[in-house]
Amino acid sequence: MEPRFNLFGTETGSKIAKRFAGLGQAVHQTSLPATTAELVSLRASQLNGCGFCLDMHVKEAIAAGEDPLRLHLVAGWRETTVFTEAEQAALAFTEEGTVLTREGVSDETWDNVRKHFDDEQVAALVCLLGLINAANRMAVITRQKGGSYQVGALAEHA
Questions:
Q1: What torsion, rounded to 10 degrees, do the Cα atoms 140, 38, 87, 28 define?
Q2: If I label 41, which of 5, 74, 126, 127 is the partner at 20 to 30 A Cα–Cα?
Q3: What does the UniProt keyword field contain (predicted)?
């Protein structure tokens, strides 16, 4: 399938993209570990089938020094030994917060996130998850393709 619309080629889309980029930068300026933020963004993008965001977050994570092996194992994180307990809590939170049920995030998952992250980091996680899911939806709806993202491109718009 070809991209059906250049959302960011419009005045409205460009304005919103700038604000999204700024919000993303705000999350990255918190004490939430950058690695955790990229793992969360990558996992949500996998669940939502967003090729553009997968491309972006893999490239950004590698540029930030993330081990490519860990990125390859994100989809099967429960069956690996390469993620910390805090990262596992964030990944469980990501899955439950992306594939929503009436319960939303379970009490068990919420309690585990609270065990590993302080209030500022939890706020960052909640906001990040909302942002990446919204970005995934916009890119999937307009059929944006992965493969051509250049590291740092989104930061240029912030």
A1: -120
A2: 5
A3: Oxidoreductase, Peroxidase
Instruction: Please state the length of the chain.
Output: 158
Nearest in space to 33 (alpha carbons), one of 74, 92, 79, 86: 86
Q: What is the residue type of 19?
A: R
Q: Coil, helix or strand for 91?
A: helix
Nearest-angstrom CA–CA distance, 24 and 4 = 25
Tens of pLDDT, residues 25-58: 999 999 999 999 999 999 999 999 999 999 999 9
- What pLDDT does 153 receive? 72
**Sign of the dihedral defined by the CA atoms of residues 111, 114, 119, 123, in that order:** negative
Question: 99: closest CA among 52, 38, 43, 27?
Answer: 43
Query: In 119-129, which positions are buried (b, 16+ CB within 10 angstroms) versus exposed (e)?
Result: eebbebbebbb
In whole angstroms, what separates CA 22 from the centre of its chain?
15
pTM: 0.92
In degrees and rounded to multiples of 5, residue 49 shows phi and psi of 65, 40
Mean pLDDT of 49-77: 95
